[in-house]
Amino acid sequence: MRQITQQIIDVVIPAHEKDLDTLNHCIEGVRRNVADVRRIIVISKEKYTDKAEWFDEALFPFSFQEIASLTRSGTGWHLQQLLKLYSPLVIPGISENVLIVDSDTVFLRKVKFFSDEGLPLYNLSKDQDLDKSKFHQDSYKHIAKILPEIDQKLPENFKNISGICHHMLFQKHMIEELFRRVEELDGTGDPFYKVFLKNSEASYGVAEYNLYFYFLISLHPKEYQIRILRYKNTADFSLWKYRWRRKYHYCSFHSYMRENQKTVSQKIKDFFAKKIGRAFYFEHWNVGVLDFPIQEILNITPEIFWIKNNEKLNFLADPFGFEINGQKYVVFEDYSQVKKRGRIGIAPLNSDFSLGKKTIILDDKKHLSYPFLINHEDKIYMICESYKSRKLSLYEIDQKDLTAKKIKDIFSDKKIVDPTIVHFQNKFWMFYTIGDSCDSRLHVAFADSLFDDFKEHPANPVKIDATSARSAGTPFLFNGHIYRPSQNCSKSYGSSIVINRITELTEQSFREEFVREIKPDSKSFNCIGLHTLSSLGNITLIDGKSRVFVFYKPLISLLRNFVRICK
After folding, report:
1. 522 falls in which pLDDT band (50, 70, 90)?
2. 499 and 554 fall within a common domain
3. Are residues 397 and 298 in the same domain?
4. For residue 34, which of 86, 112, 190, 297 sits 20 to 30 Å off, Cα-Cα?
């Protein structure tokens, strides 16, 4: 038997927006009532609280988008399972003993997780008739499939007992052994998480707590002890009542139960709020200016000057710019809410940061956006997103009449999204995403010249991460490094901008690291998202989105459908 000498516990709490009502209570319950706690760490997409350490879930070796591509459904469910299992191996400096606590679970009485003999302690679920539970049967089949030895050695009396109690003590050496056994048995070279996912046959047919629990019971029967804690699953979030009664060691206030507790009037209100939002609100983008060069974004919290645009049925987005004889120009996507497509426009930028007369320089009668500019050898070139045409073309901007002349097609029969080029170490490097995976899978191509054929990087996709894959503007050089703006699309399209530092860029390899995130500031025009940051000499261009109420939006939708039918 392995003797446990180190009993320091680090607590990990995976969290989601739906858990914000309970998260701080969960943290406080751990801090007050769980023995031997050293650190409390919240894992989430963004920082939700100052009451504990935060660890970004983007730093795990998998992402929401990758999990979605490997499973049939239940992506969020599978993600939460893997975040818990991988926490002891991913979070730097974490203890050998990691207590996972669901963020809707609040400890109410003093609890310890080691016996006097130094053995980890585990609770048993209150759930009964597990032989009739589809979830239990599906998740048990999954466990038996990835590690049959558990099924072979698990005592019969435990096959109808669950260890799912909304928290569990993991030990790093046990997780390492579990992963190694599963990977060796699979034999394909896939990491544990891929084996875990590819053997999941139901939307919610995996159970991380029971996987670990049954692993201990079947393969390490002398290295744990069972002790019973009383708990309650409830939608009644009346902490004072449960603290006063002192009947339970902890309560789990599940969000799905709280949702089911909504009154009929609340459900009706929520239903109509969503319907009204879809029927009468447009997503509206606007262009802004930062009065400093782009590299200063690494250290400055930006104050944005938003350019006025009173049009409700047209918006400007994806701003890029150039300067000719002291006059700055902005090139942008000019989007029509009526036609539901964008064109490429240009306008002079005045000294007061207002735009002059707008001119359309490119319109292919389909959707165009993201007019990325390349200044090279005293000429101005442009590529723009035209994924609906399934091609990517190179244009030159005539510096006299400000028109766009097509030079060549770079890619054909590809749905290239947000193509971005930087010249570095005598090569042109293009960053882009593709079609259905445009929010999460970063691709790279390279060429010796803008006029040569671009070769696709052998490691494509070089990055799979919805928080920082999709391009968001001009890459820039600072202190010998390329900094690449990207979009955080994990919550929604263009929710914020993430700046990455590229640490490795060769014809065989690519690597980058997170530097900072620029989030929208709703003080000005109710900005709820950002997705382009570009350099224009001594200033920087940016865009932001809001929601605009248009009472006649349903009429526009009807007219658009009528025109489509008539065609």
Report:
1. low
2. yes
3. yes
4. 86
Question: Residue 293: how many CB atoms within 10 A of its CB?
Answer: 15
Q: Is 204 helix (H, G, I), strand (E, B) or coil?
A: coil
Integer Cα distance of 409 and 412 in angstroms:
7
pLDDT, tens digit (0-9, with 9 covering 90-100), for 59-106: 999 998 898 888 877 888 899 999 999 999 999 999 999 999 999 999
- Quick one: 246 and 293 in the same domain? no
The torsion angle over the Cα atoms of residues 470, 476, 480 and 484, rounded to 10 degrees, is -10
Which residue stretches of 34-63 are H helix?
A: none
Angle at 381 between CA 380 and CA 383, to 5 degrees: 150
Residue 3: its pLDDT value, please? 45
39 and 160 co-located in one domain: yes
CB atoms within 10 A of CB 18: 16
Locate 487 and state its tokens: 């979009």
Please check whether residue 272 lies inside any domain of the structure: no
Residue 229 shares a structural domain with residue 304? no
Q: Please tell me whether residues 331 and 195 are part of one structural domain.
A: no
Q: Where are the beta strands (DSSP E) in 325-480?
A: 327-336, 341-349, 359-362, 369-376, 379-385, 391-397, 404-412, 416-424, 427-434, 441-447, 455-456, 463-464, 476-478
In a domain, 264, yes or no: no
> What are residue 70's phi and psi, to 5 degrees?
-105, -5
Asked if residue 381 and residue 240 are part of one domain, the reply reads no
Q: Is residue 562 part of a domain?
A: yes
pLDDT band at 523 (very low <50, low <70, confident <90, very high): low
Q: What is the CATH number of the domain that holds 327?
A: 2.115.10.20
> How many domains are there within the chain?
2
Q: Which pLDDT score is estimated for 261?
A: 55
Cβ atoms of 128 and 53 closer than 8 Å: no
Per DSSP, helices labelled H in 200-263 are 208-219, 239-245, 255-260
Buried b / exposed e over 494-521, threshold 16 CB at 10 Å, is bbbbbbbbbeebeeeebebebeebbbbe
For residues 23 and 91, membership in a common domain is answered with yes
**pTM, 2 dp:** 0.60
Residue-number span of the structural domain to which 203 is assigned: 9-257
Q: 18 falls in which pLDDT band (50, 70, 90)?
A: confident
User: Considering the chain, what is the average pLDDT of its residues?
Assistant: 90
Report d(CA 166, CA 154) in Å as an integer.
22
d(CA 50, CA 27): 10
Interatomic CA distance for residues 27 and 40, integer angstroms: 7
Q: What DSSP designation does 336 have?
A: E
How crowded is residue 383: how many other Cβ atoms within 10 Å of its Cβ? 24
CA–CA gap between residue 333 and residue 545 (Å, rounded): 13
Residue 35: exposure state from Cβ atoms within 10 A (0-12, 13-18, ≥19): exposed
Assigned token pair, 15: 């969290």
How far is it, in rounded angstroms, from Cα 16 to Cα 53?
15
Any domain includes 409: yes
Contact by Cβ (8 Å): 463, 439: no
